[in-house]
Amino acid sequence: MHILETRKLNKRFGGLHVTGDVDFALTPGEMHCLIGPNGAGKSTFFRLILGEHLPDSGEILFQDHDITRARPFQRIRQGLSVKFQVPGIFKELSVRQNLVIALQHHVDPRMLPEEIDRLLEFLGLAHAQAQLAGNLSHGQKQWLEIGMAIGLKPRLLLLDEPTAGMTPDETHATGEMLKRLNAEGMTLLAVEHDMAFVRQIAHRVTVLHFGKVFAQGTIDEITADPRVAKIYLGEVDA
Amino acid sequence: MEQTSRIRRILALIEGPQTLGRGPRFWSGFALVLLLACAYPAFADSYDVGNNVYFFNWLFMALGLSLIWGYGGALSFGQTAFFGIAAYCYGVLTINLGDAYGLTLFSLLAAVGCSALCAAVLGYFLFYGRINGVFLGIVSLSVTLVLERFMAQTAGPEWTIGSARLNGFNGMGNMPSLTIPWPGGPIVLYPDLPLYYVTLALLIAVYLGLRMLVNSRFGNVLVAIRENPLRAEMLGYDIRRYQLMAFVIGSALAGLSGVLYTSWGNYITPASMGMTAAALPIVWVAVGGRSDLTTTLVGALAVLIVFQLLTIHASQYALVVMGALLVITVLVAPRGIVMALVEATLRLSRRKEAR
């Protein structure tokens, strides 16, 4: 059984074929990274899974349910969650209030304060809980959003370049945070450019190129594949 | 036991992250203002008291707009449409039904319900059709202007509903005032002391009720949508439903203003839905500080009083001053002048404490 599966997923923008017949499957408990040169269709593929865009043809199955036409919030309620590239937080609200909004829907109101304290501790943001979220450092904003995304207790967490703009130390700490979540049973799918980070977290890697699945395997298999080096570096051999 | 703790939890929402003012100091101030408002008729002529109910009538619409725009982030430029719908409904109903047996109160509820229903239909197409930002303002403004134009051409004798004549631009008059059935004889709410106290009580109830609403889970989601709609949806909320609910509640409050105004003056005209009328609520709410109920209330009341004084003493400048006030607010204190004053006071007191 796969937790997420796409079958012949197609999306065009005008004459541009952004994803073409993408067949992709994700095993429960996996940490999977999606890489590819700019314009490979990674973000579009993500948006199709989230329901921000609807595909022209093809199917998306989540835990064996067809979610191809479901609205984004319905997908989230089924167990998907997302962390955007640009931190998607509520800047004018306090850090704590951000988490309240994320958790209030599915946590008993009596348990909510305790649950939020636990999450703040996990994110290392307990000291900043009263601050406005917009005043946090970039890395802290990213963590806050990860906190909001995992607060939903998702089966599958999608991460769009979760370490964009982070310092190397913050990137490493984020990797360790994601590994802890994975150890607790969460499946993760991340779009990422930073190969050191991919090496740190990924069990398997998929390379997208011109909207198609170009290669798939472990990070060692992918980096050893001369065809992958070629699409990243052009026709010159690496 | 469970019931009591539930009620206690709901009452606790009167203070929270979405409203300014908490703790004994705020509530003592609130009680003092309320006391002064209650005592005011003792020191004023009852004719003036009745006249000044005029100001309270509009505040419901201002609070409703604060909910829709300030909290929900959806700028509706056409709240006067719902003001007008309820006002005309109240007029037609009461002229036909009369004021006995509490039928004016029934008419009030029916008229407000009618506004809410129209808001639900319009809001459904707006929010489920993903009409956002400036387009929401344009469409809602268009609706109120269309209604104004439509009512303006109802001068002919054929425009009659039962015994109520719509009367075109001259306006519809002679509807009965709200009347409360009472054992010792009905209490007619003419612009006098009873109307003052009833409207004040209604205003306090709406203000406190809205405080609880915006600090509830519903309010949390509403401000989340204002801050970042995509993120709110990606937390599993059907944001269209929340926006629609806020729009309906806010528009029902505009409707309540319409009924109270019509009952107060026994008169309603299409101009109440026109361009000038539609723009004024934006000024009241923006100048005070739309993202908080208290600053909205204080700001709207202050602007209304200034506007009224201007229309009496320098009517040619009244609208120009209102426009200038909006421009100054947007440039100098985009979050509202009352809000800026509150924030400055808080900063000062914090600095003093730090010393």
UniProtKB/TrEMBL annotation, chain A:
<dbReference type="GO" id="GO:0005524">
    <property type="term" value="F:ATP binding"/>
</dbReference>
<dbReference type="InterPro" id="IPR003593">
    <property type="entry name" value="AAA+_ATPase"/>
</dbReference>
<keyword id="KW-0813">Transport</keyword>
<dbReference type="GO" id="GO:0005886">
    <property type="term" value="C:plasma membrane"/>
</dbReference>
<keyword id="KW-0547">Nucleotide-binding</keyword>
<dbReference type="InterPro" id="IPR027417">
    <property type="entry name" value="P-loop_NTPase"/>
</dbReference>
<keyword id="KW-0067">ATP-binding</keyword>
<dbReference type="GO" id="GO:0016887">
    <property type="term" value="F:ATP hydrolysis activity"/>
</dbReference>
<feature type="domain" description="ABC transporter">
    <location>
        <begin position="4"/>
        <end position="235"/>
    </location>
</feature>
<dbReference type="InterPro" id="IPR051120">
    <property type="entry name" value="ABC_AA/LPS_Transport"/>
</dbReference>
<dbReference type="InterPro" id="IPR003439">
    <property type="entry name" value="ABC_transporter-like_ATP-bd"/>
</dbReference>
<protein>
    <submittedName>
        <fullName>ATP-binding cassette domain-containing protein</fullName>
    </submittedName>
</protein>
<dbReference type="Pfam" id="PF00005">
    <property type="entry name" value="ABC_tran"/>
</dbReference>
Automatic annotation (TrEMBL), chain B:
<dbReference type="GO" id="GO:0015658">
    <property type="term" value="F:branched-chain amino acid transmembrane transporter activity"/>
</dbReference>
<feature type="transmembrane region" description="Helical">
    <location>
        <begin position="317"/>
        <end position="342"/>
    </location>
</feature>
<feature type="transmembrane region" description="Helical">
    <location>
        <begin position="244"/>
        <end position="261"/>
    </location>
</feature>
<feature type="transmembrane region" description="Helical">
    <location>
        <begin position="293"/>
        <end position="311"/>
    </location>
</feature>
<feature type="transmembrane region" description="Helical">
    <location>
        <begin position="26"/>
        <end position="43"/>
    </location>
</feature>
<protein>
    <submittedName>
        <fullName>ABC transporter permease</fullName>
    </submittedName>
</protein>
<keyword id="KW-0812">Transmembrane</keyword>
<feature type="transmembrane region" description="Helical">
    <location>
        <begin position="104"/>
        <end position="127"/>
    </location>
</feature>
<feature type="transmembrane region" description="Helical">
    <location>
        <begin position="267"/>
        <end position="286"/>
    </location>
</feature>
<feature type="transmembrane region" description="Helical">
    <location>
        <begin position="81"/>
        <end position="98"/>
    </location>
</feature>
<dbReference type="Pfam" id="PF02653">
    <property type="entry name" value="BPD_transp_2"/>
</dbReference>
<feature type="transmembrane region" description="Helical">
    <location>
        <begin position="195"/>
        <end position="214"/>
    </location>
</feature>
<keyword id="KW-0472">Membrane</keyword>
<dbReference type="GO" id="GO:0005886">
    <property type="term" value="C:plasma membrane"/>
</dbReference>
<feature type="transmembrane region" description="Helical">
    <location>
        <begin position="55"/>
        <end position="74"/>
    </location>
</feature>
<dbReference type="InterPro" id="IPR001851">
    <property type="entry name" value="ABC_transp_permease"/>
</dbReference>
<keyword id="KW-1003">Cell membrane</keyword>
<dbReference type="InterPro" id="IPR043428">
    <property type="entry name" value="LivM-like"/>
</dbReference>
<feature type="transmembrane region" description="Helical">
    <location>
        <begin position="134"/>
        <end position="152"/>
    </location>
</feature>
<keyword id="KW-1133">Transmembrane helix</keyword>
